[in-house]
Amino acid sequence: MSIIKMKSRADCRLISMLLLLAGSVPLSGCHRLTPEQRVDAWVDSGGKSAPTYLTSEEIKRIEERRYGRVLGTTLAQNVFWANGEGLRGSVKLRMKLDRQGDVLRCEAQPMDAGSPPGFTNVVTDVCWSSIWESVPEGLRNPVDGTFEVTVPLIASGNTSPISDYERRHQRSAVESRFFWDNVVAKQSINAFGQARFEFTANAKGQVARCDVTLKKNYLRPEHFHPDPALQKALATQCLQLDLQQMSGFRVKEDGVAHRVVFVEYLPWKKQVGRYSE
After folding, report:
1. 61 occurs within a structural domain
2. Where are the alpha helices (DSSP H) in 139-184?
């Protein structure tokens, strides 16, 4: 019996129907998609098809397009949340990743003369604050395994009122940035993780209590290491904060603010706030 190697999407669709009728295993060249890959295939087809079987090469192409799509939409979303001041502008972001998805370079340039420097800085900081999954093999530079991409990011004036969900995310982004600038960035951290600050403060912005927990970064869990000394240093620095300097700070009717703030820390995030002329 000869083995037929399927080479096209149509062939794999046909073989999947034959396999269903015959109750047999797939022939060489066709691979059953995971639920996530089926969703990616459906999105990739514009909502027209969700195949069960595809060739290895077709699966690779889908995963490559998904990677680029997720990267672009995630950057746009994070820039929107970080842009609490509502700055308008258009920026071209050049980003370079290594094969693991670690950020090597972030260069943001305005696409028009009227784009304010503040918006360019927002985009740059979001880039240096990001972390990504491993780059698909087909997108890597064959010489050094890196991946370079240019992403246009535009904040126009024609925007509808933001939802409560978006407003909460913008507030969280502002608080996270404040705690990064005034607490976490002051420590020498060359690790991956997330710091959780749970604090209580009075109307003057004085912190009465601050509990700090260090957690894994979900994209680099294997690189997390418990660090009691860092945890203690962050808690000490947190108690010295003047939260009246944090945009949007407010207390409840009882005159007390009780909040939880999350701050991601990454080896390259130390570049946040450093802008080239």
Report:
1. no
2. 164-182
Domain boundary among the residues 126, 155, 184 is at 155
What is the domain count for the chain?
A: 3
**Domain that includes residue 18, residue range:** 9-54
Q: Which residues contact 112 (CB under 8 A, 6 or more apart)?
A: 89, 90
Same domain for 254 and 224: yes
Nearest to 57 by CA among 8, 19, 3, 16: 8
| DSSP structure class, residue 187 | S
- Cα dist from 173 to 81, 179, 256, 271, whole Å: 6, 10, 21, 17
**Residue 31 counted as domain residue:** yes
Residue 160: the pLDDT is 66
The HSE-up count of residue 197 (CA atoms within 13 Å, CB side) is 32
pLDDT tens, residue by residue, 131-155: 999 999 999 999 999 999 999 999 8
Against a cut of 0.90, is the pTM above it? no
Do 32 and 14 belong to one domain? yes
| 151 and 168, same domain (yes or no) | no
In single-letter form, the type of residue at position 98 comes to D
Q: E strands of the chain, at which residues?
A: 31-32, 53-54, 89-97, 103-110, 147-155, 193-202, 207-215, 256-265
99, 131, 155 - which closes a domain: 155
Mark whether 150 and 179 lie in a shared domain: no
| Residue 138 parent element (H or E) | none
Q: Is 85 a member of any domain?
A: yes
CA separation, residue 158 to residues 82, 98, 129, 149 (Å): 18, 36, 27, 27
